[in-house]
Structure formats: C-alpha cells, structure tokens
Amino acid sequence: MSYELRTEGKDGEIIETTSVDSPMMFIFGTGNLIPGFERNVENLKTGDSFAFLIKCEEAYGLALEEAVQEVPISVFVSDGEIDHDVLFEGNAIPMVDQNGNRLNGVVVEINDDHVVMDFNHPLAGDDLFFSGTVVDVREATPEELERGRVQTSCSPSSCKGCSGTCN
After folding, report:
1. Domain count along the chain
2. What does pTM read for this prediction?
3. How far apart are CA 81 and CA 93, in angstroms?
C-alpha cells in the first residue's frame, strides 16, 4: 500500500508517507498491524483507494500517566560518567525493564539523581487518519509465512527502503 498517515483527522499533521515506488508491504492477519487498520483494509483489492480514521483507543491507546517513570541516573553512567551522547531531552532510548521486556523511552527531564522518561508509544493518545491506495495484493509465499514478513528483492547493501534489514 502507498499511504499517508496523519494525526487527528484528514487535515492533521502528516506523520508518515509511503509511495507507490516504495509501498508498505505486509502479510495480512499476522497481528503485526494495529487491529483497526486491518479491519479497514480487509476486503480491499489492487487499485482500491482508502481513507479512514482509527480512534486512539483502537490504535496505540491513550497516553498513560503511569508510563512516565523516574529512572535512576546511575542507569546512564558508563565508565564512571553520564553518557551525554545518549542522555538528552527528547532522545528515544531503547531500554529493558526488570522482566527483560524491550521498550523505548523518551527522555523528558534530567535531574541530579534521576531521569524522567515517557514509555508511552509516540502515537499514544492520537487518532490516526490513513489515506492511500492498494498497490498490489497477492498470496504470501510459504517462506514469507514462516518468517512472518514479506520477502523483498533488495539486499542489505543495495536497499533503500528497509533499513538494510531485508533478506
């Protein structure tokens, strides 16, 4: 699919776009997309256009106050010093919680003894408006179903649209 994603309706801020030349490719029904998106594109065919709003509750949920946490500043000490290349306001930092779950936190505030981090999804609390066109529809290959993602024809050295993670 090629699409444009906006927050808060068709006139909202553009968050993401994909083109016909570099569309979003996915395997339908694997749970890798937000449920509201899959429900809205379920019966679309090649060439169909779409435009729909997904309320935040059906997307990434409401922004939760309890997802904003104080983290001891000692967590960011490396070789006896705070790593200011990583620790600055607005930076998204990959973290691991006490149960080994990976999550991203955005640095909101830095104090002498702790760092305030927001672990909400960046689009939590936002209604999402998608508009675009179905570029192609096909059956997934057995290999794609096994991997859980679409096989692309690019390689990490020549890839322009998949961050070098394809194949």
Report:
1. 2
2. 0.73
3. 17
Q: What is the pLDDT of residues 27-86, one digit of tens each?
A: 887 778 888 898 999 999 999 999 999 999 999 999 999 999 999 999 888 888 888 888
Taking residue 86's Cβ as centre, other Cβ atoms within 10 Å add up to 12
Burial class (CB in 10 A: 0-12, 13-18, 19+), 9: exposed
pLDDT at 158 over 70: no
Q: Give backbone dihedrals phi and psi of 145, rounded to 5 degrees, phi first.
A: -65, -40
CATH number assigned to the domain comprising residue 49: 3.10.50.40
Q: Would you put residue 57 in left (φ > 0), alpha (ψ -120 to 50) or beta?
A: alpha
25 and 74 housed in the same domain: no
